[in-house]
Predict the structure of Branched-chain-amino-acid aminotransferase.
Amino acid sequence: MPLTLKSLRTGALRQRLTTAGRYDKSTWVRFVSAATGESSSLPDIQASRLQLSPTGSPKSLPQASGLVFGHTFTDHMLTIPWSAASGWGAPEIGPYGHLTIAPSATVLHYAQTVFEGMKAYRDERGKVTLFRPDMNMKRMNNSARRVALPGFDGDQLLECIKELIRVDKHWIPSQPGYSLYVRPTLIGTEAAIGIHPPQDALLFVICSPVGPYYPRGFKPVGLFGTTEYIRAAPGGTGAFKLGANYAPGVVAQKDAAHLGYEQNLWLHGPDHHLTEVGTMNLFVVFKRDNGALELVTPPLDGMILPGVTRDSVLELAKGHASKKYEVPGLTDSLVVSERPVTMKEIKDASEAGTLVEFFGTGTAAVISPVDRIGYMGSDVHIPTGPDGMGPVSKPIWKELVGRQTGTIPSDWSVVVCE
């Protein structure tokens, strides 16, 4: 018999849950919604309910030159509570401050947390924009679903985030290369120890003014090929932006730093397939026998996070290769591939002189060039240009940053306020 709302309401499973003492109305509503895909009719996020409680003690704006990524936060934050019994509550923008959660909150014991990272930019005319925020909303919903946190209307959340940015837009430094880093986070807050979908959750958004990742120009980094740890495995959670994915990576990064490398390169399987660079997606450029350049990134196979910057680099490269539009300075002889890459291929190409460049991509750095990879006791050297970048990454970076900051018109740029 197919699972329907009617059959579940009258079925034996409900009786078993009642007998076991695990049945209550809110639990059942959540189970039915998950099993059948039918709406629970509980309220979703509604931007029309947004409440504003401005701070009475605004902080002094920091000197832009002294900003350290992720250490300074604006005056306000957005909070939206959720419960299994009543759905999403009224969004509120209030003073940035501490959260109050029970020591038994599920986020503290079982890492029930997901987050996103996005940036707001202000141009010389004062217009503030976000870059492809719809992709962040979609990915955050996918991540929430993976750890049994509540889903939400991404468009409505985005409207609330826009209002938060409008309130604190004066925190965006006016100097070129600066922006406002926006961090939406969703946590399980049920005050109970036990592994199950939480009865209570909290979605909050904080903002941090940030400067250019490379204030003194691009500096290529060295990577250490990590073989004793893995970041993700097939069927796991590597494709989702979960807090639980990041803490285990710190020890690998510490090991790499101890050996003199800035970051680690995650390898997987007996053939040492490349997956990610630290917390970034990765790209490699090879020179083919016919002289064409091949831009390669590992496919989204369930182990790799679908990065917004990754997708943007691919879209720009594919659009240029297909002559849909031109990325100035990028070669016309370009092939774009999403395929597996092994360290053997990287090493062989380096020795043969056909390894052109290697770089990571992410929201914070946008593009991070690599000049060497420590692997199995020796370094694989990677060419870099005089300014630290390569022939493919540099023109794509210029196009991408232009679209992010609004100097190049693009429908990827979403207006927050004029």
The CA atoms of residues 28 and 200 lie 15 Å apart. DSSP finds ten helices and 19 strands in the chain. The two ends are 56 Å apart (CA to CA).
